[in-house]
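Morning. Coffee machine broken again, so started the prediction first thing and wrote up yesterday's gels while waiting. Chain of 259 residues, entered below exactly as on the submission form.
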Amino acid sequence: MSLIAFASAKGSPGVSQAVGELARLWAGDPVVADLDPAGGDVMLLQRDRSGDPLSTETGLVSLGAALRGGKSADLAEHLQVTQDGTRVLVGVSTPVQVHAIGPVWSHVADGLSAWSSDVLADLGRFDVGSPVQPVVESADAVVFVARDDIASLAHLRERLYGLREPLSMGRMGGTPVGIALVGDPRQERSMSDAVRLLASAGLDVEGLGIIARDPRAVAEWWAMSPRARQRSVYQRSLVDVAERIRALAGGRIVIAEDA
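Came back before lunch.
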């Protein structure tokens, strides 16, 4: 299935929150992989089926340890299930643990790519040269979440410049890259303006839509009833974005190498 990498270029526009909610809207049985090098949010935001905190011992750290030891690592053994039924790969609690995984990041990426269902990988803020870059380069699609202001778009442009060659952006067989803006969904022009701005810089990206900026809903999200979530502007905006992301990942054309 598809490995989709989600990241931000600056600040905290709400990547983790969006990925978690997209997983609940996703068709099939996706895995959320918390790969944020600065420390993951899944174990802070979620609980297991018994209502207890998720274990910090089972997840990316245990997977990395198995791979470093030369063991045959079955991703399923390192996943946990949250109260809402989402399978998650819990991330690290400190940046030191990310670097400890070091040389096996490419194997982590391979395992996520080979998983039997879609994997939504939350990379947090991404910088070119980050330890998690092998995941970006193995992804079937890369989605950047950014605020709809000039400063955020400028940082996004610089990150995309750095990924243009590794992802073969705009070339046949290259990794599709999309952007989702956080702002007012009624301001549809902001998305088309952002896509044109990046295109003028030679960066071929697809506009995926606008995620509603709704600080109150996000702050109260875990206390809201499922019905209240469904009625929120925030979730409604994610429904359309989810479909466009699936289409982005499904539209990649893989070019076979010559024998």
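Residues 3-250 form a domain with the Rossmann fold fold (CATH 3.40.50.300). Going to sketch it on the whiteboard this afternoon.
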